[in-house]
């Protein structure tokens, strides 16, 4: 059974107070859900049970609203925009008793703006022609024109909320005839997430559909290599079902045209390399950031990070094999990746990395087909994913379908309008996604996995044992972790552990190739008379970058890049 | 005329209170001086005129004392160790009137521990045999055995202090005959720094001999390219006089044995590359750190940084030309550099960098013979220096004499026991230099050059103009600078300036090759009613590392790596 920390997929959990807080002027309720599509921003609650926070200024900008939703990811809702039109529409709503009955065939004729856009939902027929222009997801809504909404709403589960149906009701023009209703019901039984793989029951679930989950932090530092079943999972869409025999990796942008490689070719024709690399979600520790002020995104704790061995062909070997050479090098600057996980329109998950990272012998970018010595689990990209060591998880594309050598970055939402960092002073009114670079290398990070926040320490123990992890992006080795039990006034140097398992000896990394985290621990004497300990850690990497002291100065509206000192409070009894 | 901010070379400036604070139990005075050799630690005063600080626990560890002083750099004094012996010696001091007269020849016979160690100073003869073991500079003192102290004290000007002469007086055994005195006086007129080049009068001098100086911060951001004459100078020893026709660069550690390259060979046989690179001293902003707690080192302000164009041969081209290949690559890990600037024993300045930085096409390491389009100035390494972009100034060796490919780092003091970072909890009792990596890449940095700390802002102006620089090590481009006028509560995004001079267009850097700083500026509305503004800046680099909030948590006993938010206070009138 999954523990639902804060379900943001199929169903949304809201306290009554949160719901009322989210109602807009015109009493149109606005709820939070950030599975595939998020219909509001600024609302959140942490899994530790703190009260919810709401942003005081709710002024979404249509451009970002549309861009975000078209991309089918967690995003800003624009249902507030609906309010003016809904008043008009509401005035025109006829009573159900007097509504005509339509056949599916008649509905299907209304599939263009000229002829009107009709859709069906739950046996009713709606003319949403006027709504198209204000649909938060843009004209993607036209995909449903003349047909049923259910297949789309099951993918973008955020629609399954009372307030969305309320809005829809304003456009009702008839009912579907009984026979067609039955046909639809049969078809609608298909859940796009029904083929998602089984998961480990220990995972703390942030969102079930799509699946996003992290392990309990205590388990995280039990082993230097994170067991695959406990490795955090960040899916943007349903897990694609890939037949390994039919799998083809397409390589584009080279003089020879599109190349197509089988799984067997990847495994047999290229040397197999193995790296131990830590992958961290750019949103790791978002829950620390949202304590300061609401942010938009999955409410990750501090375990959206893991360390595994990855084996596969080097991307550079494959690119050179496929014809990469000086001619391409003269122009190309980026390598784009596309996943086989597609949204309802067939648009795949896509991002890119700089070409020099992909080509460098020291970049260690892999087309990995093994994780921890076994074939990739479905949730981690079976049969092939990219491993871009030192770089944010978002660029380590799973279920890899296509590699494109290009002069430009990926045009996809996840490269252009997501996974970027902004100043604390930037809000949704002023944000300009073009002004910030896509997150690639991540900054230095560390967190405390023991003691647990809010736990008790026995004064008779004389010492408090502190454990955690530390890692930095760009292959910069963690060279020191400082730990304090008095909130940062005095510091102790923790003992670093490169690895603890004989079967996974971590080689001494070359400068710039330290891809794996370090686990650390220290026993610190209990300060005399202290009743509360504020345990704090900060890591230093080989470029002597260190973590900022506090969260507010690095707060950003997307809640990414949260790497301030990690803090845990414990009581001494 | 040089403005002596805090002379730590030839003569030391002390307030009477500072001197008394430094007296030890037995009334042996202990003064601070950190030119070539520092005879105490924990004492300092900033150039802004704050009162001096003294470390409460004065417990030098002989090992570090000797290691530091043997290396001829600023270091810990061990004159406290002298106190026991001095009591004994003081009891034995005869009156001058009864002292015998010795010839230079007789003195010269006492040049070994067997025969006793005699030296002369200012016409007097001293038997320092008992002092050798407790000399802070270790047995390097034996170099003066049988001769005059003056040539050594002129190089290590720290000796020229009253308390050192007081100690020496305890060992007096005679006077030198008049004729030999005259000969010595003639010889002692040679000042090893007499051939140092003329310098720009605007420079703020930290130490005259050796010369260490930085420009006034306001001038620093006047131009994207720092004029050579205003570029901060960090010399460890006298500037060597190099005849370009006799200059030879030695390359060692390759199968072909020692190679020797002329200046002309470097210029003619290898393609000339130019990079715009910022060089920053690892001790930049040390004065901010020493406000928290005393640190050891030159009291740099925040202008020990500059940006210049550097032209020369690529080190990788030279190494491959000299026979670098797979055979060497299999073993070698470091490239050591030695300067032609030597201490009195002939030991050169020496450090090393990782081999992969030196060999990478994207590392852009140059054997530079030009700075800002002209041959290197004497203070900046004429005729050849190494430019290691993105790496601390200390590794950018000037007056380059030798390059050694090696399995190990340089064994020199500056690599092993200096230029390393430690935890704030590490003190001189607990420091273990082996536990920390040598500083290579520097962390992200920024500072405010306008307004000046303590200045006035006219309320009628409505805005305050803020300017500064920002840079990060490792080729990580500065992507954003946040500025606050309320001490960090609210933030504004500054406008970045890549370059401002048509003659030096900065090319758009590839990822990981952004070697040059960015100048930035912003006009921020004056907060209503504010009487004091705390102006603060922090930069973010392409790996989204940012600067820590405050200095105390990054304080370290050497005062290096000070990159906390830069803060300036101004009054509104």
TrEMBL record, chains A, B:
<dbReference type="GO" id="GO:0008482">
    <property type="term" value="F:sulfite oxidase activity"/>
</dbReference>
<dbReference type="Pfam" id="PF00173">
    <property type="entry name" value="Cyt-b5"/>
</dbReference>
<keyword id="KW-0496">Mitochondrion</keyword>
<keyword id="KW-0560">Oxidoreductase</keyword>
<feature type="domain" description="Cytochrome b5 heme-binding">
    <location>
        <begin position="99"/>
        <end position="177"/>
    </location>
</feature>
<feature type="transmembrane region" description="Helical">
    <location>
        <begin position="62"/>
        <end position="81"/>
    </location>
</feature>
<dbReference type="InterPro" id="IPR018506">
    <property type="entry name" value="Cyt_B5_heme-BS"/>
</dbReference>
<protein>
    <recommendedName>
        <fullName>Sulfite oxidase</fullName>
        <ecNumber>1.8.3.1</ecNumber>
    </recommendedName>
</protein>
<dbReference type="InterPro" id="IPR036400">
    <property type="entry name" value="Cyt_B5-like_heme/steroid_sf"/>
</dbReference>
<dbReference type="GO" id="GO:0020037">
    <property type="term" value="F:heme binding"/>
</dbReference>
<dbReference type="InterPro" id="IPR014756">
    <property type="entry name" value="Ig_E-set"/>
</dbReference>
<dbReference type="GO" id="GO:0043546">
    <property type="term" value="F:molybdopterin cofactor binding"/>
</dbReference>
<dbReference type="GO" id="GO:0007399">
    <property type="term" value="P:nervous system development"/>
</dbReference>
<keyword id="KW-0408">Iron</keyword>
<dbReference type="InterPro" id="IPR005066">
    <property type="entry name" value="MoCF_OxRdtse_dimer"/>
</dbReference>
<comment type="pathway">
    <text>Sulfur metabolism.</text>
</comment>
<comment type="pathway">
    <text>Energy metabolism; sulfur metabolism.</text>
</comment>
<dbReference type="GO" id="GO:0005758">
    <property type="term" value="C:mitochondrial intermembrane space"/>
</dbReference>
<keyword id="KW-0479">Metal-binding</keyword>
<dbReference type="GO" id="GO:0030151">
    <property type="term" value="F:molybdenum ion binding"/>
</dbReference>
<keyword id="KW-1133">Transmembrane helix</keyword>
<dbReference type="InterPro" id="IPR036374">
    <property type="entry name" value="OxRdtase_Mopterin-bd_sf"/>
</dbReference>
<keyword id="KW-0812">Transmembrane</keyword>
<dbReference type="InterPro" id="IPR000572">
    <property type="entry name" value="OxRdtase_Mopterin-bd_dom"/>
</dbReference>
<dbReference type="Pfam" id="PF00174">
    <property type="entry name" value="Oxidored_molyb"/>
</dbReference>
<dbReference type="InterPro" id="IPR001199">
    <property type="entry name" value="Cyt_B5-like_heme/steroid-bd"/>
</dbReference>
<dbReference type="Pfam" id="PF03404">
    <property type="entry name" value="Mo-co_dimer"/>
</dbReference>
<keyword id="KW-0349">Heme</keyword>
<comment type="function">
    <text>Catalyzes the oxidation of sulfite to sulfate, the terminal reaction in the oxidative degradation of sulfur-containing amino acids.</text>
</comment>
<keyword id="KW-0472">Membrane</keyword>
<keyword id="KW-0500">Molybdenum</keyword>
<dbReference type="GO" id="GO:0006790">
    <property type="term" value="P:sulfur compound metabolic process"/>
</dbReference>
<dbReference type="InterPro" id="IPR008335">
    <property type="entry name" value="Mopterin_OxRdtase_euk"/>
</dbReference>
């Amino acid at each position: 059974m999954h523990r639902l920390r804060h379900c943001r997929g199929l169903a949304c959990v809201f306290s009554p107070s949160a719901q009322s807080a989210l109602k807009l002027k015109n009493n149109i309720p606005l709820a939070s859900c950030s599975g595939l599509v998020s219909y509001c921003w600024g609302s959140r609650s942490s899994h530790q049970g703190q009260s919810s926070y709401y942003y005081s200024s709710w002024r979404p900008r249509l451009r970002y609203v549309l861009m975000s939703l078209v991309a089918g990811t967690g995003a800003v809702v624009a249902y507030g925009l609906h309010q003016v039109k809904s008043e008009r529409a509401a005035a025109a709503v006829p009573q159900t008793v007097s509504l005509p009955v339509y056949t599916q065939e008649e509905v299907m004729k209304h599939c263009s703006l000229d002829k009107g856009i009709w859709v069906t939902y739950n046996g009713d027929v709606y003319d949403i022609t006027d709504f198209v222009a204000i649909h938060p997801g843009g004209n993607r809504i036209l995909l449903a024109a003349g047909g049923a909404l259910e297949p789309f709403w099951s993918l973008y589960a955020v629609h399954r909320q009372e307030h969305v149906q309320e809005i829809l009701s304003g456009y009702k023009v008839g009912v579907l005839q009984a026979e067609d209703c039955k046909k639809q019901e049969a078809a609608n039984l298909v859940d796009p997430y029904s083929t998602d793989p089984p998961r480990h029951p220990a995972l703390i679930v942030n969102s079930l559909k799509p699946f996003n989950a992290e392990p309990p932090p205590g388990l995280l530092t039990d082993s230097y290599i994170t067991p695959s079943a406990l490795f955090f999972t960040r899916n943007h869409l349903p897990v694609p079902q890939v037949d390994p025999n039919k799998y083809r990796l397409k390589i584009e942008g080279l003089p020879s045209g599109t190349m197509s490689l089988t799984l067997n070719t990847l495994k047999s024709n290229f040397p197999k390399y193995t790296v131990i690399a830590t992958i961290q979600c750019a949103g790791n520790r978002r829950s620390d950031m949202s304590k300061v002020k609401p942010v938009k995104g999955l409410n990750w704790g501090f375990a959206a990070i893991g360390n595994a061995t990855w084996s596969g062909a080097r991307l550079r070997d494959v690119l050179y094999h496929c014809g990469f050479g000086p001619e391409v090098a003269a122009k190309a600057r980026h390598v784009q990746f596309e996943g086989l996980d597609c949204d309802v329109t067939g648009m795949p998950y896509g991002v890119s990395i700089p070409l020099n990272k992909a080509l460098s012998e020291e970049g260690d970018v892999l087309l990995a087909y093994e994780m921890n010595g076994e074939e990739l689990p479905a949730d981690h990209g079976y049969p092939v994913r990219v491993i871009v060591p030192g770089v944010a998880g978002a660029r380590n594309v799973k279920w890899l379908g296509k590699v494109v050598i290009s002069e430009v970055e990926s045009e996809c939402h996840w490269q252009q309008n997501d996974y970027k960092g902004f100043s604390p002073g930037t809000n949704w009114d002023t944000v300009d996604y073009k002004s910030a670079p896509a997150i690639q290398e991540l900054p230095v990070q560390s967190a405390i996995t023991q003691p647990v926040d809010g736990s008790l320490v026995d004064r008779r123990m004389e010492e408090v044992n502190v454990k955690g992890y530390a890692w930095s992006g760009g292959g910069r080795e963690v060279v020191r972790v400082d730990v304090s039990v008095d909130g940062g006034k005095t510091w102790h140097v923790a003992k670093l552990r490169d690895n603890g398992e004989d079967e996974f000896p971590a080689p001494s990394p070359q400068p710039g190739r330290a891809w794996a985290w370090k686990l650390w621990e220290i026993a610190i004497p209990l300060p005399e008379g202290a009743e509360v300990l504020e345990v704090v850690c900060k890591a230093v990497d080989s470029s002597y970058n260190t973590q900022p002291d506090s969260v507010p100065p690095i707060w950003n509206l997307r809640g990414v890049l949260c790497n301030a000192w990690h803090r845990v409070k414990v009581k001494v009894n």
